[in-house]
Please model this.
Amino acid sequence: MARRLARTSSRLARSLSTALAEEASPSALVTLHDRTVAIGTPPRTLVDRLSLTLREGDRLAILGENGSGKTVTAQLLGRAIGGSADGVELTPSSAVASSAGVGREGRAVVHVSFESHRRLLQSEVREYRESRFDVTHRRATLASYLFPELRPDLPHPNGFAGYTPKEARLAPLPVPYDADAHHPGLAALESAVTRGEAGELLRQFGLYELRHRPLFAMSTGEARKTMVVDCLLSPPTLLVLDEAFDGLDSQSRDDLREVLLRTLDADGGRRTGALALIAHHPDDLVPPPTHALLLGQGEGRTGFLGGEWRGEGA
Model:
């Protein structure tokens, strides 16, 4: 693996044509000048004096060996976009928080990764346990996750004895566990999830027939695609696909690649503000990058190379 990455890095270094650091322009989402990416106490430098500009429509591949600072660099970009990069401690890759379990309004950055997927499932279980609902109720579904504002407002059939569960995005629904698309309590969700852009995306991602399936019952590939659909319905300023194919079997990887190419490629007309692509395997850089940042360079492994992407074989 290390030898393959070294060969890939060498090819990438030859294909990076221009510096990423340029003057800010009206379309620039964020411009960094001589920023040091460091974690821990005392601080350990991962990337020294990083300079780059990220613009709307950019698809930035962040590449390097394990521990070179790929995820933390993406986190710095997101916090800079959100206006909170200065004086904020960055965290290691394993501690990067996910936005999957919170509302979608005003999101600066969203990570879609194995880690954010794990956090999503953990949050769903916690919300289910805290709700005091029993096993006869429908747990949070794909539809209620995408449209939390439309979750049914129905009384608990057995009463709450003075307790009202909070209306959280991943909270269970006050309908029977076997409720289907025809249940009157799910009418608003059914209408929202089958029409317009939502219905189109679910069909493209092969999720339409699963629209009322509980999140906990989805396969890894189905849940990962659900997270991407969420980002397309309400695009964050920066979407980070951070090893988004990890944990998927070969068929699920192929399916996700195909649908990402169809929906996120610039030629398809569907954009987030910007994309950051983190991957060990060049085949997982989907859609194809416009720019690349290669970390772990130089004697101290804290340098970087950056520029326009001209393809791995360029």
User: Anything to note?
Assistant: Strands lie at 28-39, 44-55, 59-63, 109-113, 137-138, 173-176, 238-242, 274-278, 291-297, 303-308. The first helix runs from residue 2 to 15.
